[in-house]
Structures are given as C-alpha cells and as structure tokens.
Design goal:
Blueprint lengths: L1 E2 L10 H12 L10 H19 L8 E4 L2 H13 L7 E5 L4 H12 L3 E5 L9 H7 L4 E5 L13 H11 L4 E5 L14 E5 L10 E5 L14 H4 L7 H16 L1 H20 L4 E4 L10 E6 L4 H10 L2 E2 L15 H5 L4 H5 L1 E5 L6 H18 L6
Parallel strand pairs: 1-11, 3-4, 3-5, 5-6, 6-7
Antiparallel strand pairs: 2-8, 7-8, 9-10, 10-12
Helix pairs in contact: 1-8, 2-8, 3-4, 9-13, 10-13
C-alpha cells in the first residue's frame, strides 16, 4: 500500500506504540494517586510536558493535554469567551478546520459579532481585510497556521503583532494541528496541536496557553491540568506523544527534505498529465508535506476509489468534512469551483514515503484518468 493521506492521520511510530504499551500493562497507575508508583508516573508525565512545551519555547505550566485538535480548538474559544462578560467581536477565516469554523457559527447564533475573513487564491488570509476588521471590541481571533487541504502557510507571528497593536485585549489563537514541530514555532496566545498527525496515537493532543491569558478552562471535575481540563490523565498516549515528537525532531531536517523530495517528484510527474492543475501556493511557498491538485474531467471521489483499488490511498480533503457531501468550503473560498473543485485530490506525506512511491502513484493516476475520462459526462 502507498499511503498519501498523512494529513488525515499517521502511522504510530513503533517506539511510541511500545512506550504506550508499557504504560498500559506495567506502569498503569493513576498519576493523581498518592502512592509511590503513581507518583513516579506523575513525574514521568511532568517531564514529558516539559519536553513537549519546549518545542513551542514555552513553560510546561503553559501546556494542557487534551483529547486532540478538535477539543483544543473548541476549548480555546469557549474558555477564552467564558472569561469575558460581553458578546464581543470574534474573528476567523473562511478556510478554518470544522473544529474552529463550526464553533464560530454556533457563537454567531448566540449573538456574538462574528467576522469571517476571506483568503486569496492560495488559501492565505487576506491580511488587509483582517487588519481592517480589528477593533476595540475584538475579543478573540483564530487563524490556522497551515491549511490542512492545500498547505498554505499564514504568518502567525506577524498577524499576532497586528492584533496586539489594534486590539490589545483580544486573545489570538492558532490551529497548529498541521504545523506543530514540522514548522518553526510562532508567537500567539493559544496554539492547538494533535498527536495523531505526529506519529502518536489518536485521542491525545494539547493546547498551549500563554501565561496571563484569560481562560476559564474546559471540562470540570477532578481538577487535572491545573484545573483547566479535568479528566483522568491519558498517560500511555502522553508518553507515546513525547516519544514520537522526540523521534521526529531528532531527524527534523532529514524528514523535511525527504517529504519535499516526494512532493516535488509527484508534482513534476503529475504536471505532465493533461488538465492537471495545482491548487494552493506554489511548491516552493507551501509546506513540504501537502499537495492538492485537480484533475479535470473526473470526480475526485471516483478517482480516489479507483486508486484505492490499486492500493494507493489519497483523499479529497479534510477527513472531518468528508462525510458532508456538497461543495468544498475551503476550495470555494479560494475561488476554485465547478470541474476544478470536483476533481480535487489531496496528497499528504510522511518521512516514510519515497520518490519510488511518487512514481508509482503518478503512473496509476495517469492510467486511471485515461479510463475514467472516457466516461466523462457530456
């Protein structure tokens, strides 16, 4: 199997899986307990928190563990707005992940002043429109770091400075699920990430919250995570997350170069196919691990199924939005419509992928297109 859907989820590193098993079978004690084995587990979690926080150049007290990106994004918004007493202006973009976009719509229904900023043809935020939308009543901003469908990158640190200049009381959050450790750290008030995009198990992630940021937290209960997110600590997954990040960072430069070589090879191969169009930024301006292309004359779902039968796994966009049929909100916001939107396919890579796989996949795509385009609707 050739797996080119790593933005949806990744295969867990063996070392990460092994450490998770160790903490499930042998070191299984609840770190909230007072006896010695539990205290040792709590100490191990504390050290992992320190290491993971260091990747964002933050203190361990500024990181709370969650169940993943969706929870992190949700509680960033609810926890920040819960610390206020007014229905302020909240700003996001038209291309956010559903775990940001849908909560914003829910708050709009509650009477908040929701502003959704458009993007350019590459998927980057319209910075002029964003700056114009900032006012004294702005309380919360959420802008994704890396777009999960086309790989465009927003300059989060620059946008953060603009927020602090024009709306100093606003809290700036960034969805970093597709960027954490793969891209350089950025400056913001809150930053979300998810373990299963980073070769760790599903069901673990985190939210960085800069010290001093008004935030009332998420789940109530036993007071775990500095009383900001109650719930029994998911020790096996946290330890696996720490292990996966350490392994990835040891070969960060090599991993980046490897994924870029696969992406470039696949793009060059596909570019020679008739009516194949790149969506999003140029290869040089996008992240090394996401490529989105449209193949005119065939529906993306049909091509996806054809490739799946050949053992090649790709996607037509965000896995969280795949069950909702209809127009692709992200591509529509970028001005990509009709046949070009219908024929869009996302490829996303891990360091385990090879240029040989890129060659095999490209040939399979070309063969499938020759067959499928014969049945093109007139």
């Amino acid at each position: 199997m050739i797996y080119f859907d790593n933005s949806a989820t990744t295969r867990v590193y063996k070392a990460a899986a092994d450490i998770a098993v160790e903490y499930m079978l042998n070191l299984y004690h609840n770190p909230a307990a007072a006896y010695s084995p539990a205290v040792s587990v709590e100490r191990a979690v504390s050290l992992s928190r320190q290491r993971i926080a260091s990747y964002m150049k933050m203190d361990s007290s500024e990181l709370i563990f969650t169940s993943g990106g969706t929870e992190s994004n949700n509680i960033a918004l609810s926890g920040a707005l819960g610390a206020r007493r007014d229905k302020c202006r909240i700003i996001t973009t038209a291309v956010e992940h559903p775990s940001v976009y849908e909560p914003f719509l829910a708050y709009k229904a509650k009477g908040y002043d929701v502003v959704i900023i458009g993007v350019d043809s590459t998927g980057r935020i319209d910075e002029d429109a964003f700056i114009a939308a900032l006012d004294a009543n702005t309380g919360f901003v959420s802008i994704m770091h890396v777009n999960n469908e086309v790989g465009s990158v927003n300059d989060i640190s620059r946008l953060y400075r603009a927020v602090k200049q024009r709306a100093p009381r606003a809290i700036f959050h960034s969805d970093g699920v597709q960027a954490f450790v793969k891209m350089p750290s950025v400056n913001c008030d809150m930053y979300s990430f998810s373990g299963h995009k980073l070769y760790a198990p599903k069901g673990v992630g985190g939210l960085f919250i800069k010290r001093g940021t008004p935030f009332v937290g998420g789940q109530l209960g036993g007071g775990q995570e500095n009383n900001l997110r109650s719930g029994t600590t998911n020790v096996p997954s946290i330890m696996a997350l720490d292990t996966s990040l350490e392994a990835y960072m040891k070969s960060h430069s090599e991993n980046t170069a490897s994924m870029l070589s696969v992406k470039t090879r696949l793009y060059n191969n596909l570019s020679s196919i008739k009516d194949a169009i790149l969506n999003g930024p140029s290869i040089e301006e996008s992240v090394p691990y996401i490529l989105n292309m449209s193949f005119l004359g065939v529906r993306g779902e049909v091509l996806l199924n054809s490739l799946s039968e050949k053992g090649i796994i790709v996607s037509t966009g965000s896995a969280c939005a795949a069950r909702h049929r209809g127009k692709n909100r992200i591509l529509t916001a970028m001005g990509i419509r009709d046949d070009r939107q219908d024929g869009a396919i996302r490829f996303s890579f891990s360091p385990e992928n090879t240029v040989w796989e890129a060659d095999i996949a490209a040939q399979a795509i070309e063969d499938s297109l020759k067959m499928l385009r014969r049945f093109r609707r007139r």
